[in-house]
Each structure stands twice: as C-alpha cells, then as structure tokens.
Amino acid sequence: MHDPNQIEVPASFLALFTSPYGQKLTEPIATVRDRYELCEDLAQMLVERAGAGQSGSGGDEREVLAKMRGALTGAGSPVQPAEAVWVTRRLAELLGWEDPGEG
C-alpha cells in the first residue's frame, strides 16, 4: 500500500519504536510519525529557550541540556523518557552543541 505521507522519520527516532532485534516497529507507523512530529516540533520550540538558558548560566551547554531533559521527563510531560532523550539530543544538534548522549 502506498503511504501518501511525505514525512520521513529519521532512523534515530525509528529506533525508539523498533523491536529489540530491529525487525519491526512496536507501534503502527502512523503513531510513530505522530510522535516524531511532536518531538521534532518540541525540539524546534526549545531552541530559543535553550539559547537564553545558556546565556543565563554562563555558557554551560551540558547544564542547559540536562535541565531541558529534566523538564521533559517530569510529571505531565507530553513525551516518554526515551523521546525526551531524543528531543534533548536533537536540540543539541539544532544548536550546534555537543551531543549530550543518552545519559
């Protein structure tokens, strides 16, 4: 069946929803695509806030990213913990900062 959706979900995000052996998705592709759109939009929206946070903290990128991740994993967050890691890493990429890794 042809999928008319033009959004390409990056492999780094697909990995969050892939079975341990990498054989198939654990959720329907439409769900994965929706989650990706949410996470990408969130990362894009946080760029300005993270930049301002860096200015306020004296330039410590890791500290800013750790705070962002903490907020993303807090109660009421719209994203799951693994998605929060992805958003934080994507945010670092958008800002040209060092990848904070998964932990």
In short:
With 103 residues, the chain is mostly helical.
Give an overview in words.
The chain is mainly α and 103 residues long. The protein has one domain (11-95). The protein is built from 4 helices and no strands. It has helices at residues 11-14, 29-56, 61-72, 81-95. α2 (29-56) packs across α3 (61-72) and α3 (61-72) runs antiparallel to α4 (81-95). The radius of gyration is 15 Å and the shape is elongated. The model has no long low-confidence stretch (mean pLDDT 89).
Would you identify the regions where 5 or more consecutive residues have pLDDT less than 50? none
Give me the count of strands.
Answer: 0
- Radius of gyration of CA atoms, rounded to a whole number: 15 Å
Number of domains: 1
SSE string, helix = H, strand = E? HHHH
- What proportion of the residues form beta strands (DSSP E)? under 5%
Summing up helix and strand content along with how strands pair, one would put the structural category as: mainly alpha
Tally of separate helices: 4
In percent, how helical is the residue content? 55-70%
Describe the main β-sheet briefly: none
Could you tell me how far the N terminus lies from the C terminus, measured between alpha carbons in angstroms? 39 Å
Mean pLDDT: 89
Overall geometric form:
elongated
